[in-house]
Amino acid sequence: MSEHAHQHAADQKQPLEPATPRRPRNAPATLRPGKLPPRLLERLLEECPTRGAGVILGPAYGEDAAVLEFGDRCLVAAADPVTFAADALGYYAVVVNANDIATRGATPRWFLATVLLPATATEELARSIFQDIGRACRELGVLLVGGHSEVVAELPQAIVAGHMLGEVSRANLRTTAAARAGDLLLLTKSFPLEGAAILARDFKDRLPAGAYRQEELAQAAAALFEPGICVVRDAAAALKAGGVHALHDPTEGGLAEGIWELATAAGLGAEVRAASLPLLPVAQRMCADLGLEPLGLIASGSLLLAVAPESAADVLRSLRESRVSACAIGRLSAEPGVVLLTTEDGSQRPLPRFPVDELARLIAGNDPLTPHP
């Protein structure tokens, strides 16, 4: 079950919401924007039936999709709402759910969409969302098989909640927990592609005037489609080479949270080299100008791979042949809970954590959060 959420970039014609006011003493604590804290989520899931006949993999931290018995094959199921993107909602919804299916080694097949529209919505908005859904489905060979649509009086903006089903053989099934100590960590493309696209599309008016060429911002905005936030091709090319033990889709909380999630799901630690991280240059500049940390910015479009060291060269070659760039950024260790970042001067520190995505913090107008080691 995918736990990440893509939160909405508010209409930039409206002022950003002020920081949450200090709550009165003894008032119930409110939750931060973003994913539910893992410990809270674990307690909440204990209240629900999650294990039983036919369930191969249920909800678990760091696992992107559920796996069910499906005759001699496995049915893979993922669910994700899209609320970060101000446009291309339908496209996002299909792609981010297909990405979760791909991390299981599965092929996305069937999509369902719950489309919720505000009372101010027009037929044009509804049509554009469904056109985007259709475009993404055709690109991926997926069928739209159901869902729900509704206009909601109190809803401030459109939301699309997607649900994707796929299938895979038992032999080709992958889980995040299957990563092994000593595996190399590979990352496809550069990061944070989705974050860069959203900043260039929805926050360009907040960037310093004259600091960016129009072509530069246009290219960043187009990163949604080229190189694209879809990792289905990345996963297929990597798995074709063999030696891939686990795949994980870093999304909300950025690359840093993605690495933590993969390591934690497998009961391992990790060592990551800062000098090896393929940070998108324009994203680095936009983050600096907006006071954001790129490691914590929503990062759909990249795929984390845990690969046997002896297979890494073959995996990288297969990705290149599929026109997908990739590089090694570190390795997994046998020390659970120890995830280190080796800086360019050779020193090590804990890889920071981002329980609130940097984009959510920007939308809320909050001051930088102290990273959680």
Describe it for me?
The protein has 373 residues and is α+β, with helices and mostly antiparallel strands. The chain has two domains: 38-172, PurM-like, N-terminal domain (60s Ribosomal Protein L30, Chain: A, 2-Layer Sandwich); 176-205 and 212-364, PurM-like C-terminal domain (Phosphoribosyl-aminoimidazole Synthetase, Chain A, domain 2). Helix content is 29%, strand content 23%. It has helices at 38-45, 89-102, 123-140, 193-202, 214-221, 232-241, 254-265, 281-290, 312-321, 358-364, and strands at residues 55-57, 66-70, 73-82, 107-118, 143-152, 159-169, 184-188, 244-248, 269-273, 304-307, 326-333, 339-342, 348-350. Strand 12 (339-342) and strand 13 (348-350) form a beta hairpin. The chain starts with 37 loop residues before the first helix and ends in a 9-residue tail after the last helix.
